[in-house]
Amino acid sequence: MSASPPSDESSPSLRVLHIGKYFPPFRGGMETYLRDLMRAMTDVQVISSALVHDHRRSFRSRASTLTTARSELTILRAARWINLSFAPISPGFPLLFLRMLRQEKPDILHFHLPNASTFWALIIPKARRLPWVVHWHSDVPETVFASHWWLRPLALPYRALERALLRRAARIIATSPPYLRSSPFLAAFRGKCRVIPLGLPSPAPTHTCAGNKTASRGPDEPLRLLAVGRLSYYKGFSVLLEALSQAPDVELQLVGDGERRDELQALASELSIDSRVRFRGSISDEELEAAWAWCDCLCLPSIERSEAFGIVLLEAMSRGKACIVSDIHGSGMGWVVEEGVTGLVVESRNAQALSEGLQALNSDRAALDRMGRAGQRKFQDQLDIARSARQVKTLYQDVTAHAG
């Protein structure tokens, strides 16, 4: 089913086919941004469609629509048989790619990486005739291929295909200046790279928490800390729990699930902090909104550059919440969160430094409130999805003006 045109009298000047990894309801920063960008692009006269993988294991592809005020946008989920490490395997992907090219008739292909299925474009003539935009959400570090013996032989072909895709791209979007500067894989292509930060829609007025009620709460009440993310190694939640054991006046809600949940729960018990830590697991949007209303600030203690941006930081800032993050060279986290202005940036993998940061926030609730307000202003000025959509539209226009 092809996307229907906008409901107003003006017609879109551009049609764009996005090639993504997954799509909501799968929860991930890249997927959330893709959905929100597609919605926002309809307001700047760009009609989008998307080919992604089904996040559920399946042998049958399925189509759906993303409804906006102006259009019905096509989402096609390719049947995913298995995952090979980080890469979903969908044997039908190239045929579905051809189907979407014929059906949607895009003017531009927009690839969201990392995603090995984007490499199919290199051998599809109809795809090669269109201009390409590569959205570089994160590097695939060498440690991924070194993690298993059977992945090591795949490193060279993956890098060759990745370089071929980047060479063919008309423009490459990086999500922050630090990430662009530090990526070894983008170094040879910086001349066609542009920085466009990720964005989110502004939350409903009832969901904004500017003022935060933090300063008005009693000084003897514990600091209410929220952490949101997959319970995986690079998120650094074990460091957060160790920091909490040194900060007795802090309570934590940890939202998310993953392979390290049992290990983290055992660590909380071992550190005798389980009475102050609540593991929420995967929760509904309504429950997550209640968690945002409950908390005083957000912590993102990631320990590796795999945390390229941290879109959850935008969720916090849009709600007037201060953030405390790790200082990781090349990550965008320290660019999103300005030290002492919208939050704190502390040494990575250092539980004592994180504990001291938490206690500093707890001891100065007025400063915590000011940081939350400053973060909300930065979100509104720089990180709203409408701004991101306008910047992407300008990039598309530049690409099409020089195409051919």
Give the structure's gist in a few sentences.
This protein has 14 helices and 16 strands.
Please specify the SSE layout and strand pairing.
Blueprint lengths: L13 E6 L9 H13 L4 E12 L4 E6 L4 E9 L1 E3 L2 E3 L3 H12 L3 E6 L11 H4 L3 E5 L5 H5 L8 H14 L2 E4 L2 H6 L10 E3 L27 E6 L8 H9 L4 E6 L5 H10 L6 E5 L3 H10 L2 E4 L10 H8 L3 E6 L5 H4 L6 E5 L3 H13 L1 H19 L1 H17 L3
Parallel strand pairs: 1-2, 1-7, 2-4, 7-8, 8-9, 9-10, 11-12, 11-14, 12-13, 14-15, 15-16
Antiparallel strand pairs: 3-4, 5-6
Structure, described:
Helix 1 links the parallel strand 1 and strand 2 (46-57). The protein has two domains: 14-201 and 385-401, Glycogen Phosphorylase B (Rossmann fold); 205-382, Glycogen Phosphorylase B (Rossmann fold). The chain is of the alpha/beta class and 404 residues long. The chain has 14 helices and 16 strands. The longest helix has 19 residues, at 365-383. The chain is 36% helix and 22% strand. The strands form three sheets. An eight-stranded mixed beta sheet has the order 3-4-2-1-7-8-9-10, with helices on both faces. Helix 1 packs across helix 14 and helix 7 (237-245) crosses helix 12. It is globular.
